[in-house]
Design a protein that fits this description.
The two termini are 22 Å apart. A hairpin with a 2-residue loop joins strand 4 (93-95) and strand 5 (98-100). A 6-stranded mixed sheet has the order 1-2-6-3-7-18, sandwiched between helices. The protein has a 4-stranded antiparallel sheet with strand order 12-14-10-15, covered by helices on one side. It contains 9 helices and 19 strands. With 385 residues, the protein is of the alpha+beta class. 30% of the residues lie in helices and 26% in strands. It has 2 domains: 6-184 and 303-383, Aminopeptidase (3-Layer(aba) Sandwich), CATH 3.40.630; 186-299, Alpha-Beta Plaits.
């Protein structure tokens, strides 16, 4: 069996400009690599009327349980202004012992590390009892409509059982080994549109300014304390991400004003309960100010928590042995595809250090790639003992 070097593979993956929703050949490349290791690969392409088709990959080695799955994504965010980078973001470069390129951190290098770990594990354990699988999507950084969510639905229909899943997102704040994610807060986005009466600024008695109402609504929502958090989750928070008025005339009161927001919420709430809470506040203020309103919501996934079990404690022990750091269990940060996978399997998230993800000159220490590969390999060894 040929050897897979995590650094070489990471550089190859980064060279694909797979900016969501473009695949740029990354999924087919991974499929070919995994077939060489003996995996049965299925490329799943999903689409709908409002989005472009997305390629996903489910690959499995073995037919018996338990099935340990690795989940990740090949899509990346745009690099921004390429002139701000010190290197071409899709021509991975090593500088000062760091691998630089878009996806080096989030999260192509992690995929490369797990594949290298599997390669090393198989060289030592050709007849292990169980299965290893990969769930790779090209739609994590975007709307996540045609990605992991639909792959999970596909696996359910096929009655494909995953016993445990490692999601390779970059989980560590500053040093490799600091943090394992065992859950995430939920995410609910919303848009508020307030309708008043348009008119001349010199005749305020003839108009109803929707800006006044949208300001009051924003103030009330922001001042509303959702909760104080608990031992597993930080407090829920609502943040406004935009306020809009389509009016360039200085002497006209507009007919409409709108605002958009996002709520990151813990397990005290559901998307449904928060929708009702927001709607009540908006309704009462609009009634008081004689305005009409419209509310739109997009639920991006409820909060979840994986109760630590023997596999999670085993992973923590492996991480500590290699990094000399005892990782903290956490639910902080944004959303991830674990919010879909948790519906079919318990999971943890562990990957690289996240401090440069989505930034200019995104990078990862080369030494961390070697360590992460060893961590993943030792988890495989312990899991299939």
């Amino acid at each position: 069996m040929s050897s897979i070097n995590e650094l070489k593979l990471a550089k190859e993956l980064i060279s694909f400009p797979s900016i969501t929703p473009k695949d740029a050949g990354a999924i087919n490349f991974l499929s070919k690599k995994l077939k060489l290791l003996g995996f049965k690969c299925t490329i799943l392409e999903f689409k709908d009327k409002k989005s472009k088709p997305i390629k996903n990959l489910y690959a499995r080695l073995g037919t018996k349980g338990p099935n340990l799955c690795y989940a990740g994504h090949t899509d990346v965010v745009p690099p921004g202004n390429i002139n701000d980078w010190t290197v071409n973001p899709f021509n991975p470069t090593i500088k000062k012992n760091h691998l630089i390129g878009r996806g080096a951190n989030d999260m192509k290098s992690s995929i490369a590390c797990f594949m290298s770990a599997v390669n090393k594990f198989l060289n030592l354990n050709k007849k292990f009892k169980g299965s290893i699988s990969f769930l790779i999507t090209g739609d994590e950084e975007g709307y996540a409509i045609n990605g992991t969510k639909k792959v999970v639905d596909y696996l359910k229909k096929k009655k494909e059982k995953i016993n445990f899943c490692i999601v390779g997102e970059p989980t560590n704040p500053k040093r490799l080994g600091e943090m394992i994610k065992i859950g995430r807060r939920g995410s609910l986005s919303g848009k508020i549109e307030i309708y008043g009466i348009q008119g001349h600024v010199a005749y305020p008695h003839l108009i109803n300014n929707p800006i006044n109402t949208i300001v009051k609504v924003c103030k009330k929502l922001k001042e509303t304390k959702l909760d104080r958090g608990n031992k597993n989750f930080q407090p829920s928070n609502l943040e406004f991400t935009g306020i809009y008025v389509d009016n360039k005339a200085h002497n006209v009161i507009p007919a409409k004003a709108s605002a958009q927001f996002n709520i990151r919420y813990n397990n005290y709430h559901t998307a449904g309960s928060l929708k009702k809470r927001v709607k009540l506040i908006v309704k009462n203020l609009c009634k008081k100010n004689r305005c009409k309103f419209r509310l739109k919501f997009i639920a991006n996934g409820d909060s979840f928590l994986t109760k630590p079990d023997k596999t999670i404690y085993m992973a923590r022990k492996v991480i500590k042995n290699i990094t000399k750091i005892n990782p903290k269990f956490s639910t902080t940060g944004g959303t991830s595809d674990a919010r879909f996978i948790k519906n079919i399997s318990p999971c943890l998230e562990f990957g690289l250090v996240n401090k440069t993800m989505h930034k200019v000159d995104e990078c990862v220490p080369v030494a961390d790639l070697r360590k992460l590969t060893d961590i993943y390999k030792n988890i495989l060894v312990e899991y299939f003992k």
